TrEMBL record, chains A, B:
GO terms for cellular component: aminoacyl-tRNA synthetase multienzyme complex; cytosol. Homodimer. This is Aspartate--tRNA ligase. ATP binds at R210, A211, E212, R218, H219, L220, E351, G399, L400, E401, R402. It is found in: Cytoplasm.
C-alpha cells in the first residue's frame, strides 16, 4: 500500500498535495455540513474533513479506533489545532473497532496500571507510551553500533541450561524432555567460556530470567540483558567501554528522537565521559563524615546511596567492592583480596549495572565456589574451560529496561517493558 | 592491557616495531639455540622466537594452549611459514593449560562432533569454526542496519507465555511460580499485537523454543528467530523487505570478512534482488511436466524441492501456498480462499524462511482457529487486539542459524550454533 506518514505531512515533507494516509480514527465528530475525523498513525495526528454526503454516511457511525485509509488533498493553511488537515476524496474502512473500548486512548484520566497492561495494545497507542520503546530501540542501536566499532562479535547463548549461573535459588524449572533444566539467569558462564574459546570480545542481547518471589517497581522476572565480555582486559578496560556505550546510546536517542522526546516532555540526561570513579571504601568515609557508620562488607542502603548520589550528580562508578558482596567469579584485588576488581555504574542513587574483572585461574575459581557454599562439580562444564587456556577477562551485564527506566525517570520498570512478567503476570 | 592484534602485524599495520601480543601458545618447539612458539590470537598466528636462556627455561615445558603475553620486536623479513615473527624480550605466563588437552586445536583429523560440542571452548579456537559466528554476527548487523534504515523499531517480547503460538504440541513447560506456563515457539502473536498497538513496523531477534522429539541435522530445540511485522502491508511488501534484508546481510559479511572467508575456503552466495517468484501451483505444473504428480494441498517433498531448486538456481520465492498447509493466522487470497497470501524463501532446495500477509479481521480469525481445531477462547488475549482496531499487516520469521547454515553450506545446523540444544543435549 502506497501511503504517506502523517508525520511527514505535519513537517511539510509530503510529496505532492494529494496523499493517502492510513491509521486509527481516534475521534469522529459530525457537524452540520462536515464530519471531522482525528486520524492517528505511528508518526502523528491530523484532521480529516469529510464533506461529501456519501462519505459522511459511511463514517458517521464508525466506532472510534477503527482503522481506515483516506485519500485526499492536503489543506494549505489549516486552522485546526492539529496543524494539518486533509479534505477527503475517498475513505476505505479497513477494520471496524468494537465499542466501547476496554480503555481510552485520549482520556484525561489515565486508566490504572493493571488495566493498561491488560490492554497494552491500546495503551501503546498513546504516543508517550510508545515513545519509551522507540527510545529503547534507539538506545540499543547506539550501544550495538559502538560495540561493533570496537570489534565485538554478537553471540547467542542458550537460555535452557542445566546449571544455575549463580548457583542460587530464583530459577524457573523447565521440563526438557525427560530432563530437568532451568531458564538461564544470565549469560555470564557462557560468555566467559567464549573467552576461553578465543572469541576475544563478545556481546549478547537476550532475555534473562529470575524467579524472584517479590514484586517491586524495579524488578522483572524476565528482562533483556545486554552483556559483554572482553579478553586480556580488566575492570578499568570494561568501565571505559561501558561509559562510552552508554554515551553513544544516549547520543543515538537524541539523534533519532530528540525533537519528538521534547514534545512529549521526556528528557534524556547528559553523559559526560569519563564518568567519575569513587571506591566503596571512599563511600564509607564520605558517609561517616555525615555521621553515618557503615561497616566494611555491608551493602549500601538506598538512603546511603541517595546521599552519595546527591553528592556525585549524574553518572558515576562505585569501584572495589568487598569480596563478600560479589559473586564467585569476581576477581579479588591481587594486593588486597578482601576487595575486588569490580564496579557498579550508578545514576544518582540508582544502580544501572555492575561488572568486574573475572577470576581466570581454575584453582582460585574452585576456592571461590567453595567459599560461596557452592559445589564446583556442579559447574564442571564451566571450570573445564578454565583448565586449558583461559585468558584474563572482564565484562559487565546491563538490564535494558532498567537502563531506560532510569534514564527516562519512569516510576516503574514495567513502563519500559512491552509485556511484563512478574510474580502474578504471565498474560498477555 | 596495551596489546597489538596479530592480524595487524600480519597485514603490516602494527604501530612501531616493538609490540606486546597476547594469546595461546599453540605449539612450542625447543631447538638447540632457540625455542619457537606458535602464538595464536583471535586474528591470526605468528612465530615467537625465544633465544634468551632464562626465557627459554621458563617456557620450555609450558603446556600447549597456555595463555601468554609476549613483548618483543617484529622481525623485518620473516622466513617462517606463518608470515610474521617476533623476537621475544619478555614473556608473561597468564594462565597455564593442563595436559593432555581433551581435543586438539590443530589436529589433521577432526574430532567427532559430540567431542567437539562437549569441548566447544577448544573447538572454536579453530579459525574456520569461529568464523561461522563472525559471519552470523555480521549477517545480523547487515539485516538490522537495513531494518533500522526502513524505520523499524526493535522490540523484545516475552519468552515465558501462557498460550501456545500455534496451539500445537512441541512446547516446553515452565513452572512459573504456582502457574503452568510455556517457552514461546515464536514471537508471532506478540508482534501482531504490536501492530494493533500502532508500532507500525517492528523486528525482534530472540530465542525461540520447539520441543521437537526428533533430532535432525536441520533442527534445533532452541534457535535464534529474526522476526518482522509491518502494518498496512501485504505479503508482496514484506517479500521486498526480506530479499533486501538478506542482500544487505550478505553484503555486510563480504565487507567485514571477505578476505578472511576466502582464506578459509568459505563462500557466501550472490544475492541479486529481486529474487524470482513462482507460485505453488506453478511448481505443481513444472513437476507434472517431469512426470511427477502432486495433488493440490500436498506439501512439496525434499526430492521435489531439489528438482525445483535445480531449475530456479539460488534464491527464489514460492508463493500462494494452499490454506491447508499454513497456520491459522495466514491471510487467504480474497479471490480464491483455498490459497493464501503467503511465501517461502528458498535457496536451491532449502527453505530459508516463510512469511505471509496475516488475517486482520477478528471474525475471520476465529473461524480460522476453529478450522484448525483450536479453541479461540484460549487465545483471547490475542484476538482482543483484533477487535479494537487491528490494521492489515504482514511479516516473516527467519531462523538465524538455519540461514547461516544454508548460506555457508554447512552440513549440520549445530555448526552454526555455539551451544546447541537438541533432543539429548542441554550441556554445556
Amino acid at each position: 500500500m502506497q501511503r504517506t506518514y502523517i508525520g511527514d505531512i505535519l513537517r511539510g515533507r509530503a510529496n505532492g498535495r494529494e496523499v493517502t494516509v492510513a491509521g486509527w480514527a481516534q475521534d469522529i465528530r459530525n457537524l452540520k455540513n462536515v464530519t471531522f475525523i482525528v486520524l492517528r498513525d505511528s508518526t502523528g495526528r491530523l484532521q480529516v474533513n469529510v464533506k461529501d454526503q456519501k462519505l459522511r454516511d459511511a463514517v458517521s457511525d464508525l466506532a472510534r479506533e477503527s482503522v481506515i485509509s483516506v485519500s485526499g488533498a492536503i489543506v494549505e493553511e489549516p486552522k485546526s489545532r492539529l496543524g494539518a488537515e486533509i479534505d477527503a476524496y475517498s475513505i476505505n474502512i479497513l477494520n471496524r473497532s468494537d465499542a466501547p473500548l476496554p480503555m481510552g486512548v485520549d482520556d484525561p484520566v489515565e486508566a490504572d496500571f493493571e488495566t493498561r497492561l491488560n490492554n497494552r495494545f491500546i495503551d501503546l497507542r498513546k504516543p508517550e507510551k510508545a515513545m519509551i520503546f522507540r527510545v529503547e530501540s534507539s538506545m540499543l542501536w547506539g550501544i550495538r553500533k559502538f560495540l561493533k566499532e570496537q570489534g565485538f562479535v554478537e553471540v547467542h547463548s542458550p537460555k535452557i541450561v542445566a546449571a544455575a549461573t549463580e548457583g542460587g535459588a530464583e530459577l524457573f524449572p523447565v521440563q526438557y524432555f525427560e530432563k530437568k533444566a532451568y531458564l538461564n539467569q544470565s549469560p555470564q558462564l557462557y560468555k566467559e567460556i567464549l573467552m576461553s574459546a578465543g572469541l576475544d570480545r563478545v556481546f549478547e542481547v537476550g532475555p534473562a530470567f529470575r524467579a524472584e518471589e517479590h514484586n517491586t517497581p524495579r524488578h522483572l522476572n524476565e528482562f533483556t540483558s545486554v552483556d559483554i565480555e572482553v579478553s586480556f582486559a580488566d575492570h578499568e578496560d570494561v568501565m571505559g567501554i561501558l561509559e562510552n556505550a552508554i554515551g553513544q546510546g544516549i547520543k543515538q536517542v537524541k539523534e533519532d528522537l530528540g525533537g519528538e522526546l521534547e514534545a512529549l516532555s521526556l528528557r534524556m540526561p547528559e553523559a559526560r565521559v569519563p564518568f567519575p570513579r569513587i571506591t566503596y571504601e571512599r563511600c564509607l568515609e564520605e558517609l561517616s563524615r555525615d555521621g553515618i557508620n557503615v561497616n566494611f562488607g555491608e551493602d549500601l542502603s538506598p538512603e546511603q546511596l541517595r546521599l552519595l548520589g546527591d553528592r556525585m550528580g549524574g553518572f558515576y562508578f562505585i569501584t572495589k567492592w568487598p569480596s563478600s558482596l560479589r559473586p564467585f567469579y569476581t576477581m579479588p584485588d591481587p594486593e588486597r583480596p578482601e576487595i575486588t576488581n569490580s564496579f557498579d555504574l550508578q545514576f544518582r542513587e540508582k544502580e544501572i549495572t555492575s561488572g568486574a574483572q573475572r577470576v581466570h585461574d581454575p584453582k582460585m575459581l574452585e576456592q571461590r565456589f567453595r567459599a560461596k557454599g557452592l559445589n564446583p562439580t556442579d559447574f564442571e562444564f564451566y571450570i573445564k574451560a578454565f583448565r586449558y587456556g583461559m585468558p584474563p577477562h572482564a565484562g559487565w551485564g546491563l538490564g535494558l529496561e532498567r537502563l531506560v527506566m532510569i534514564l527516562l525517570d519512569l516510576p516503574n520498570i514495567r513502563e519500559a517493558t512491552l509485556f511484563p512478567r512478574d510474580r502474578t503476570r504471565v498474560v498477555p
